[in-house]
Amino acid sequence: MKMNQTINNWTDITLSSLNDITSKIAQILPNILGALLILVFGWLLTKLMLFLIKRFLKVIDLEGKFRKLKQKTFLNGIPSEINMTRAILSVIKYTFYIVILSVVFNVLGWDSISVEVTKLLAYLPKLFSGIAIFIAGLYIAGFVKQGMLSLSGTVNLAGGRFISQVSYFIILIIISVTALNQAGVDTTVITNNITIILGACLLIVTLALGLGSKNIVGQLLQTFYTKKYFKVGQYVTLENGVEGEIVAMDNIYVSIDIKNEILVIPINKFSQESNKIKKG
A Pfam family in this protein (predicted)? Predict the structure, then answer.
């Protein structure tokens, strides 16, 4: 009798356990199936997006633009075997994977993991915007550098290459700090130190330019006013009595046709003489 009762108790316990297990499986099975479907759909969507983005990057010739950027900036030291398209696609791919896993963890009810992944996803836009600011800054710094080189070449400014390099690195430092700040990095200490250093450098450069460029500024003003009053095609009488037609004029020389000869005069000397314009 007791034996039968014991067997019945075991049977009840076993059936109750099986019912509990079956009930729990029935509860989580839809979540598991939903998570699997999300994984498959997310994987297919990622493949499609990567294909479209790869085609787009090929159309805009990203590799060619990156090579030009390397030539104009300090990125020229980056090994040539690095494929920029592949790097961007890898970043996008793993970002999609993180998003998919976050959704899967949410569906499965793994809240603690889902919260941490969500925090990572919330940080990614800041990181990418910081990278975008840095890349845009490289273009701006390179453009300013080339502009300074061209200007110094036009006015024959000694030390123009040095000034353009200094301008380039100042802009690069400012852009780098801005990018780090956008990415969420505390740049207070860096900013304070850089402000002091840049202030000292700018003071030195300002004094050097102010003391060493007086003649250049004078030449620029002479050139400006000379071009304002004298034009190509005018007949002029020089201070020494020589007459001729102005056939060319640039920032350095004035060329005058004197019968069968071309007289070339430095424009600063031409502007200092009492030259006359012939009427008619």
Answer: MS_channel_1st_1
